[in-house]
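Reviewers of the previous submission asked for a worked example of the structure-prediction workflow described in the proposal, so we include one complete record here. The input consisted solely of the amino acid sequence. No template or homolog information was supplied to the procedure at any stage.
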Amino acid sequence: MCGRFVSSSSADAISKFFGASFESEALPVNFNVAPTHDVYAVVADSDGERALRSFHWGLVPSWAKDIKIGSRMINARAETIAEKPAFKGLFKKHRLLIPMDGFYEWQQGQAGGPLTKAGKPAKTPMFIHRADGSPLAVAGLWAAWRDRAAGPEAPWLHSCTVITTSANTTMAPVHDRMPVILKATDWQQWLDPTYHDTADLARLLVPAPVDVLTMHAVDTAVNNVRNNGPELIEPAAL
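From that input alone, the workflow returned the following structure tokens.
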């Protein structure tokens, strides 16, 4: 799964990198993005014009009674998004890219290593990012929802979910899943809301090549979502 990531690039830098316009209010830099936070995402219109906007992380389908369901829908498995009722319609026409400067996963503790207070092997947080230092373009889906009980004037909530796939050999020692990271040559097709061939789109939802990512252990301060700052991605002291 993907449950925590870093968004440290400015809106200006992200919009330039993705060739997108930006007219929304800027989000604060966040080195510990967690579910229910607002995040940047890139969408496109039928003319191919891209825009950088903010979305609530945790998908809230249009039919949901309230937004609580979003905390359980932060990820969508690539293998089943064409079948799951909550995702299959969105897969056809509500696709986006979620820029990330890296993400965190926790590696299972080893025997003989540090222990938790409960006496179990402690997990090690790992910061995973592109080896070339550029942002990750992570595939996702989006939905629009509003509280029907509040009447027709209720504001719309735009939310998103991260698509995950099986881990490549770089990620496998840490976790069996990883976010789908798209190449720049695939962005246009993925974002095109008029392209509905999900069988063809599914071919993009594969693990990234093994040389795309690199990683290092970081301090356990990242375990607490209230902690934030660039020190969270610094290599852990040996």
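The mean pLDDT is 94. We consider this example representative of the routine output the project will generate in years two and three.
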